[in-house]
């Protein structure tokens, strides 16, 4: 938890010292997957294409732990969700006409989902950590729920992309890929939270393929689907981002 507090202080210090740089193109905020090194990770190919197709576009990766342990997964998710909300809020305030896109892979998809849809009681850090064998002791309170960003902050978020989302909701209109429409992600959001996701409607796309048990719980798990989303859907995502940018 100390990492969480220290990182927030560091990011806040950087923001106040340097100010927010508004971009002429699309501002992309990315949350990488578990254990990926700091950077754009699996989604690099997409961001580079957008930077070429939409002049002036820039990318910020969210500097959260993206860990399973030290800190534990759900503390890492809480960290990333908070940092992403701060980044979007600060950019929206400084650049009221600036268009944004949010993208997340694996754990990063849960981070993005928490930021815009919120997280209910079931999968919050405050309720999960005590149930995990070997999890570090909780030395300070953690939230039992996580509220979504308000719509006045996200009105210029033109696109939201999830790859291999652990909180994938079955039957959602934004689902894409070959995964069963009946299967949920391993940490699916409860129905009371989905209403906040639905307000993003056609702006959102969540890619999940059969065999990726992270987002398609109940399938026969294979490693290839979870790491192949950009290869399989990258061009489609780029087209979606460009179209959303041009239509808003």
Automatic annotation (TrEMBL):
Signal peptide coordinates: 1-19
InterPro entries: AB_hydrolase_fold, Cutinase/axe
Matching SUPFAM superfamilies: alpha/beta-Hydrolases
GO molecular function: carboxylic ester hydrolase activity
Domain of life from the UniProt record: Eukaryota
Gene3D superfamilies linked: alpha/beta hydrolase (3.40.50.1820)
SMART domains: Cutinase (SM01110)
Pfam families with a match to the protein in the record: Cutinase (PF01083)
Swiss-Prot/TrEMBL keywords: Disulfide bond, Hydrolase, Signal
The protein's name: Cutinase
Species the sequence originates in: Stachybotrys elegans
């Amino acid at each position: 938890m100390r990492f969480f507090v220290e990182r927030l202080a560091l990011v806040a210090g950087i923001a106040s010292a340097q100010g927010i740089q508004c971009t002429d193109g699309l501002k992309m905020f990315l949350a990488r997957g578990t254990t990926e090194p700091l950077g754009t990770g699996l989604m690099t190919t997409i961001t580079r294409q957008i930077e070429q197709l939409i002049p002036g576009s820039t990318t910020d990766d969210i500097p959260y732990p993206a860990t399973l342990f030290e800190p534990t997964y759900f503390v890492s998710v809480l960290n990333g969700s908070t940092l992403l909300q701060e980044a979007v809020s600060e950019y929206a305030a400084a650049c009221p006409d600036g268009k944004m896109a949010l993208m997340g892979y694996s754990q990063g998809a849960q981070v993005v989902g928490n930021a815009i849809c919120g997280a209910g009681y079931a999968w919050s850090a405050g309720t999960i950590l005590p149930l995990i064998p070997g999890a570090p002791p909780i030395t300070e309170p953690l939230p039992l729920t996580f509220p979504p960003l308000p719509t006045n902050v996200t009105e210029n978020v033109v696109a939201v992309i999830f790859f291999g989302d652990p909180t994938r909701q079955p039957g959602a209109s934004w689902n894409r890929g070959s995964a069963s429409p009946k299967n949920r992600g391993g940490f699916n959001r409860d129905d009371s939270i989905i209403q906040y996701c639905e307000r993003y409607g056609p702006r959102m796309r969540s890619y999940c393929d059969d065999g990726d048990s992270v987002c398609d719980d109940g399938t026969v798990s294979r490693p290839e689907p979870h790491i192949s989303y950009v290869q399989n859907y990258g061009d489609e995502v780029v087209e979606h981002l460009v179209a959303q940018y041009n239509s808003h």
